[in-house]
Design brief:
Shape: globular
Number of domains: 1
CATH class: Alpha Beta
Helix content: 25-40%
Radius of gyration: 16 Å
Order of helices and strands: EHHHEEHEHEH
Strand content: 25-35%
Number of helices: 6
Length: 153
């Protein structure tokens, strides 16, 4: 990485760029609504995330441009002797930046943040259709140790 990437907590002013990145891939384009003005559902979700001390919406910036995003949720559990887990969701890099190591830096930052928060485990999911993403996460040390299930409501 030849450029300095800085990470910070997202602000509401970043929301349009974040939604743009979430919508800018094959699966995201089918489920997100990147429109101007942004639909209110994104603003409501942002406020819920930003007001929760166990959620962090983090952007990666190069100079003044947002080039990546991820959400980290910290969850206490009774299992593992009351241990905390970090769940990484919504990882995206700008389409113009893909393949330049931004995703790796995002995930490494999230792992370090989880350690700072005292988590004993970092977990994430990726859609089974995202074969490249699965290989990417495995290269970073993640293991497919569990079978995940979801139910749309």
């Amino acid at each position: 990485m030849d450029r300095e990437i800085k990470f910070r907590i997202a602000t509401e002013q970043d929301l349009e760029r974040i939604v743009e990145m979430l919508a800018d891939d094959a699966l995201g384009s089918k489920r997100e609504r990147y429109e101007q003005p942004l639909p209110n559902c994104y603003i409501k979700a942002f406020h819920a995330i930003s007001s929760d001390p166990n959620n962090e919406l983090v952007v990666a910036c190069c100079e003044n441009e947002i080039i990546g995003v991820q959400q980290i949720t910290f969850t206490p559990y009774l299992t593992h002797q009351g241990g905390w887990r970090a769940t990484i969701e919504g990882v995206r890099t700008s389409s113009s930046e893909r393949g330049r190591g931004i995703g790796t830096e995002l995930i490494r930052w999230a792992i370090n943040r989880a350690k700072e928060r005292g988590c004993h485990l970092v977990q994430l999911t990726t859609d089974k259709k995202r074969k490249d993403a699965l290989r990417f996460y495995e290269r970073l040390g993640f293991k497919a140790t569990h079978e995940g299930l979801k139910m749309k409501l």
